[in-house]
Each structure stands twice: as C-alpha cells, then as structure tokens.
Amino acid sequence: MDIVFSQKQLVHRPQQYGVHGRLVTPLENPNRAETLLKRLTECGLSHREPEDVGREAITAVHAGHYVDYLSGAWSRFQALKNAGPEVLPNSHPYYAGASALGARPAPRTTGILGQTGWYIGDLSCAMGEHSFKAAYASAMTAATAADRVLAGEPAAYALCRPPGHHAYPDRANGFCFFNNAAIAAQRLRSKHGKVAIIDFDTHHGDGTQAIFYDRGDVFVGSVHTDTTEYYPFFFGYADETGRGEGEGCNRNIPLAFKADDDGIISGVELLIEAATSFGAEALVVSAGWDAHKDDPLSRLSVTGEAYERIGERLGAMNLPTVIVQEGGYSLAAVAECAPRFVETFGR
Questions:
Q1: What is the 3-state secondary structure (H, E, C) of 218-241?
Q2: pTM, rounded to two decimals
Q3: Kind of pairing, strands 155-158 and 2-4?
Q4: What tens digit of pLDDT does each residue of 301-314 get?
Q5: Which of 12, 62, 165, 166 is catalytic?
C-alpha cells in the first residue's frame, strides 16, 4: 500500500483556534502528519507524491465560487486596516441561502469580511498565507490515492492534512477546507457504480454527509461521539438517513460519552453491514484516531486495540479502498493507532 503525501501540506501553520471562549494554540498542526508519515513508512508503506490533477477534482464536490474565495482570502484579508495575521470570521449569516444541504449561491456581499463569514463556519479554520496551498495539496493527495486504486491497486493511504470531513460544499469547518473523502469517493465513481464512505473519527463527518445527502450512489456511514453536547453539534443524529434519492443512504451511529472499544467496533460492524447491503463496489475510509482515550478532544474510552480490530473488519470487505486521514491530535496515540490499523487491514 502506498502513502500519498506532499510536504506542501505542512505549510499550513495556524496560530489560533477558538474553543470554550478562548483563542488557543491549534491542535491541528504539521507534527501530526510528520508523525504519521514516519510511523507508516517504518511499517513498510511506500511514500508517493501526489499529482496535480487539477482544480476539477475539487469542484466535482465543492462550489467553484468557494474555491475562488479560499484561493484569494489571505491576501484580501491582509488589505484590511488593522488586519490580524490570519483570516478569521467575525460574523455569520442566519440565512443559509439554500433549503438543502448542498452548495449555497455565492453571497451577495463582495467584501472580504462578509464573505469570510459566509465561507468559514467557525473559529477552527484560521487561514495564513500558505493555507490554501496546503489544502489544495491535501485535496490532490486524496485524488491521487483514488487514482491509484482506480488503476488497480487494492488500497492506498491518503495522508491528508489539513483533514476534510467537516468541509461542506461551500464552507470550511472544524480544521477542514476541502472534503478529501468526498473528493476520493467522487473520483471512484468514475468506475464504480456505488461507493461507500465509512467514517470512524470521533467527530461526525457532517460535511461528508451534506455533500452526498441527496444522492443514492454514495453511502455515508459514521460512528462518532453523540453530538448533543459535542462538535459538530447540529448534525450526526441517528434519524438523519438521507433525502430524496439519498433516502436510506446515510447512517449515523452516535456513541455515548465513555463508550469503549466494543462500542466503536460494533458501530463499524453495523456500517459495514449497511454498506454491503447498499451494494458498495468501492470503499473510502475516513480514518480518525481521535476517539482514542488519550486524545485531547476525545470523550470516549477507546484504546489502540480497537483500531486493530476495525482494520481487520474493513480489510475483510475486500473492496478497492482509499484510506483518508482525518483527525487524531495526540502524537503518541496516532503513532500507535495508525500502524495497528494498517497492519490488520492489509492481512
């Protein structure tokens, strides 16, 4: 299995992260990707640079006007009087501009402050001078990994950073700018009639759900911490099952605080059953290591052993698979969990 990764993904170095009423040092930082690359290559995986397959891989799931905004946001923001070092929103619209979860129209406001409130959903997506470059490289990493699988490789690991599963068609959220799992899934659809996404990050992949909620060709399943008191708060509930052609193609399995290995593994098993019943011909795995009990964002009691068992079960699906990196913010935990998952997945 190849790891796809670009050093360009390390140039995104956010300085601010808003949480619990404070701006603090971000948990999503380059050390995560560097640690994962080191540990996974030590396990025998080969490192491959992504190819630049073009902006079209991104606009297949994201609005073009959103991509335009991100590409120029930092320089436009710096032109403001008394601008801070990073792009951050200070207002958000009540009106979403769309009745569905898909992309909204471009905002009527043309100013950078108004557009920032439209396109950036929270205080965890601070953008510096090189953030777009890193996010673009992360998207190319996902697309290249999918292309490797389309070319006949049984699996590829997209070491995406920044991560992606909170990114909506036209909005950045939760450390995420482009939805890498959605980009990979859409790419796999060029060959496979039905694709499944299984997400076991501790946070619900609300952006991934939004992108495919009205579609019947991509199954989206997520096992995650109950969102009634946990990010992303507004989605991730068990009664969200898809809409229109997508009815029945979305499955959420919320876990109570303190849920252990058996809870997350049982959730993954249910998602595998649902994806199999759906008739999935290819698989995208949104792999987050932040359910681990030692992760600073975790409210669960999951250990490293769970990821061995999850890897074994997902590998046993025997589908062409793109593994896409999502969360995981304890360097010790990611260094343990990712290798344990990969080793059993490939057996």
A1: EEEEEEEECHHHCCCCCCCCCCCC
A2: 0.97
A3: parallel
A4: 999 999 999 999 99
A5: 166
